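// run 5 | inverse folding | seed 20
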């Protein structure tokens, strides 16, 4: 897959969890991320070339963007890229809700342009996609993408943009060893054929493919991800054991192998960075090569498990 952005790193930094309410641990992820943690994460990522930061207005209703801006405040703007999103379900009632939400994001992020701006869901492709065109023409948005869209919706968005001389530059969908719907629906092939960057989110399925969690060591209760994933843990042990075994032979972890698999499929994984040490994992995964036999073995076992990790916000692709 040929990238449309020559400065695109192999792994993007995801800040969804930064929208949680901070040290209290409330929210979707139950995160306990301090300001010092966030700053160390930002500094380690920037120094290792992981300079694309993915966020959204809806993550903590602006909190993620605000926290990200603070962490990057001392870096020149041309040393990092910001990826943020318009989410139709929280759109306002103004004349142009897309531009309104963008303006709010720009203010929180302390910048006058967004490198990659997304339509976050396909609520109404024909309604929302044209709203991106004046933003591209004005230069407040450099590139555009669509997230959680199926193949027909991606093509429709591209047709709408092409009438004004623009295009869909990127697709961002849930994609992991446990959820390969974008691959089976032909979206990865479409992106490769048309030089569209595919960003894969939830590559580690919110941590359950790291091997850290098991039936005897479940995710801490009290968060949404615990309620979703803890019942799956007995079914996932054979897969995380295999990932760990392959990783042991390469001086890497199960998480590194799962991330390297996503890279091997021509995607840019978005890794949720809630701990500074995860930057080292991204470095390791970026340098890890999996053989065709290893990829086939991993995929075969993952397919046999049969769990459904499609998020409540996702339409069937």
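// decoded
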């Amino acid at each position: 897959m040929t990238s449309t952005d020559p400065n695109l790193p192999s792994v993007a930094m995801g800040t969804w969890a930064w929208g949680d309410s901070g040290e209290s641990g409330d929210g979707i992820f139950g995160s306990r991320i301090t300001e010092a943690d966030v700053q160390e994460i930002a500094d380690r990522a920037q120094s290792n070339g992981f300079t694309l930061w993915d966020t959204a207005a809806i993550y903590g209703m602006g909190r993620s963007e605000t926290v990200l801006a603070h962490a990057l405040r001392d870096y020149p703007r041309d040393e990092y890229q910001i990826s943020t999103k318009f989410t139709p379900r929280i759109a306002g009632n103004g004349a142009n809700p897309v531009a309104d939400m963008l303006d709010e994001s720009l203010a929180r992020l302390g910048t006058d342009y967004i490198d990659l701006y997304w339509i976050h869901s396909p609520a109404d492709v024909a309604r929302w996609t044209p709203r991106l065109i004046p933003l591209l023409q004005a230069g407040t948005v450099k590139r555009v993408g669509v997230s959680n869209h199926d193949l027909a919706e991606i093509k429709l968005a591209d047709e709408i943009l092409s009438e004004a001389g623009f295009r869909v530059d990127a697709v961002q969908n849930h994609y992991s060893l446990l959820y390969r719907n974008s691959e089976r629906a032909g979206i990865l092939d479409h992106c490769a054929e048309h030089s569209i960057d595919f960003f894969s989110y939830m590559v580690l399925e919110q941590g359950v493919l790291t091997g850290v969690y098991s039936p005897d060591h479940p995710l801490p209760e009290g968060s949404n991800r615990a309620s979703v994933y803890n019942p799956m843990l007995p079914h996932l042990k054979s897969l995380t054991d295999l990932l760990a075994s392959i990783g042991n032979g390469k001086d890497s972890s199960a998480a590194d192998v799962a991330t390297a698999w996503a890279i091997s499929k021509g995607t840019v994984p978005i890794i949720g960075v809630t701990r500074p040490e995860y930057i080292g994992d991204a470095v390791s995964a970026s340098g890890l090569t999996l053989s065709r036999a290893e990829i086939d073995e991993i995929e075969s076992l993952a397919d046999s498990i049969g769990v459904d990790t499609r998020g409540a916000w996702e339409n069937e692709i």
